[in-house]
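Changelog excerpt

This revision adds worked examples to the README so contributors can see how folded entries look when concatenated. The first example is reproduced verbatim below.
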Amino acid sequence: MKVRPLEDRVLVLPAVPETRTASGIYLPEGAKEKPMQGKVVATGPGKRMDNGKTAALSVSKGDTVVYGKYAGTEVEIKGDTHLILRESELLGVIGN
């Protein structure tokens, strides 16, 4: 199944949550924190402006992004949980 986000939305594959602490203690399922970063899998064409033109997104496929803990909508694609977020819900881009 192929998903193409609309307008200024991006499809993000969240990072895998940590299963151990830095000191090596394994975390139970209930103690794991929801990941707040992930990789952009697909982007929409951009937001349509009042003048009819489309504003380009500042993120692209392959970027690693940071987002709010409860941002976006979860969708399941091919057995993996993804997030669909508006570009404005993204907090930053990691790297480059």
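The second example, added in the same revision:
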Amino acid sequence: MSNLRTPLSKAKGLGSAKTGTDHFIVQRITALALMPLVVWLCMSLAFLPDANYISVHLWLNSPFNAVLMIVTLIAGFYHGALGMQVIFEDYISSHSARIIAIIITNLLLFFFAVLGVFSVLKIAISG
């Protein structure tokens, strides 16, 4: 009766990884930042007189709207990268496949974020 523990209930002795808290906090901060930004984006687009190319182009030509759009893009893609990393870490058991999935996802999201920021800057600067 002295040994009631099964082999599955023993701690592996690896200790705490001492990581993850920063990831958790940054993901919550990006989520909090995206709340008002997405509300602003939806309300701004909803109050446009027309949803055609010219009116959206003129709307995005404003420095205020361009800066907020860039912040929304950066926060959104960064939040997405953090969330996908958590999903991959939770559901992909192979270490090498997990790392490859995280790297590919981060590269793709970085590419699309840069593409979005470049597009907004091109519209805002070219007039």
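Reviewer comment on example two: The chain has one domain: 36-126. The first helix runs from residue 21 to 46.
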